[in-house]
Design brief:
two-stranded antiparallel ribbon, alpha/beta, homodimer, Rossmann fold, eight-stranded mixed β-sheet, Rna Polymerase Sigma Factor, Chain: A, globular, 10 helices, 385 residues, 2 domains
Chain lengths: 385, 385
Amino acid sequence: MDTALPPVNHQHVAFDDGFVLECGVALKRLVVAYRTYGRLNADRSNAVLVCHALTGDQYVAETHPVTGKPGWWEMVVAPGAPIDTDRYFVICANVLGGCMGSTGPLSPRDDQEVATPWGTDFPPVSIGDMVRAQKRLVEHLGITRLFAVVGGSMGGMQVLEWAATFPEMVFAAVPVATAAYHTAQNIAFHEVGRQAILADPDWQGGRYWESGRIPARGLAVARMAAHITYLSEEALSRKFGRRLRPGPNLAHGGLTMFGEMFEVESYLQYQGSTFVQRFDANSYLTITRAMDQFDLIAEHGGDLSRAFAGTRTRFCLVSFSSDWLFPTAQSRAIARALNRAAANVSFVEITSDKGHDAFLLDEPDFHRTLAGFLGGCAEHAGLPA
Amino acid sequence: MDTALPPVNHQHVAFDDGFVLECGVALKRLVVAYRTYGRLNADRSNAVLVCHALTGDQYVAETHPVTGKPGWWEMVVAPGAPIDTDRYFVICANVLGGCMGSTGPLSPRDDQEVATPWGTDFPPVSIGDMVRAQKRLVEHLGITRLFAVVGGSMGGMQVLEWAATFPEMVFAAVPVATAAYHTAQNIAFHEVGRQAILADPDWQGGRYWESGRIPARGLAVARMAAHITYLSEEALSRKFGRRLRPGPNLAHGGLTMFGEMFEVESYLQYQGSTFVQRFDANSYLTITRAMDQFDLIAEHGGDLSRAFAGTRTRFCLVSFSSDWLFPTAQSRAIARALNRAAANVSFVEITSDKGHDAFLLDEPDFHRTLAGFLGGCAEHAGLPA
């Protein structure tokens, strides 16, 4: 399969009995790539499923095989960390539609004689589809109940979906920096990114593997636009302000003044250019679409509390004060719905100026909250300390 | 000159004695395209200069010659309106670097034998350059003092620059929805737009007039990203929410689910596609760069009050509560600096859920504020009612 991503044999499980998507398409084969950390205990009661965000993947707590960088949540998932791998068995699966080994647009299509990649013919998937794919993995691992499901941003959407769809399988749920539906503004930002990809002639109608040229510039612009939404105005001002650095001395003078550029420009360009080395453009289209479609309120007749009626799951909702992509009001609305459903729920807004990205960063208050909640739940669940 | 913009003979004045830009480049010729409304009184004391925003132009209060749409501020500039054309003589000039007739990247370059357009070789311009070009026009019209200078967003930057640089020429100043400097977040959003343009192969290093193909897709993406920042989350939710409409039934199924798209996506795509019919990509690069460079605080040694020391100009600052691009805090900082300079200043935050765009929309509170302030100033200036 000729793609821009380096070939890595990701740990995975393949289900050859098919998988029917919400859109009605039946995949003949479902591959779920995943990683685990820690040890499953004898009664299989200590499993924590971590759900990753839009551009995350299963390499939570180890060096990434493509980028060589540390895992995206090494501060949270480690021995002695809030999700303590000495105590819990941590599972993370690459989402359905992703590009790190799970079935997605890079996978060979299974509806034709000749196996070319799905590309943009890959059927639309939903957050619900992602969760049902994870459930197949969890069952494959012999686990009938997850001690906890934890995730931020799109990962938080999966946590909510898990709790709403398979409540008996979720003892504790931690939806972080997330929402029960994607707002018009969030959809709009995603659409800018998609249009940037579609505008790149190297996208080639999504069949870019044929030429070996990927829509790197469009995908980089998409990443840049998204990246701004992950940061707060305060964080950008603090990190970069209006500081200048030497810029490319371009022939076209209109682009630089006195041969300088702003540091924030250089930073964004770097974010865009490194992203395309680890992410597939068609996956980006597929997964952003899944997020946009997510609406747990509409799915339950306009009343989110119905999604959680009778639930015995313990919830801990976390938001960050400067997150304008998934603002606190969105978490508060979920907390209210859970209250209406008489659920066991705690809700913490962490004061931070780091914006949406805070859930990935060194936020001691958040980490203490997570550790405390999971520790309390573990006691109630009778997990040995 | 082969460009995508239809040829229109914009009303203009040409200065053939040259114009030295802040960057040091000396233009041999300066053309300022402009429109006026109302009548200049006998002692030339009733002139109001309106300064337009990034993608605005001089067609304030009349049908636009390219788009055929109404002027962008017809609600504000008209007989009996807040900027009453029965009372005031209103001038609006296309900014230096623009694409509606003033000297800019579409103009023939004057530093070579063969007159091709400047394109991206057009030198970088500043907000200060724009204002000095307007000053040439104002003087050409025989006006030595403007009764008022009014503008929103980048227009507001020009108002501040006018008041700081030529205080004796400005009796009253109304900077609306603006800031004394462009923040890191605002620069970041502009950079996404610029990268989208540069990523379009039809940009062709800025020499797109040679092939006759303009970077329409890149410019459309830039416009889409910017447009989101002009609206508030509330406005987007109210206008579009998560409403669906029939979408293109694309072969690539991953792009639509059940053949539908969100209304907000369709709206943004429309905004992008119509923008490219009236705006030049190189102008967009030049003008966004001018905005990014604007920093009246740094220019005055870190103390904005020095920009206005001893001023006798009367100021009315206006912000809108849901404007997150130029938030109220930015206007408040200007008001405080003016207070430190012992200036005559009033500051009004208009409650609105329409975001930055509110300054262009039907906001009765804003219009009443503007009318009242100008009326009071006119009395002080001794203008006949």
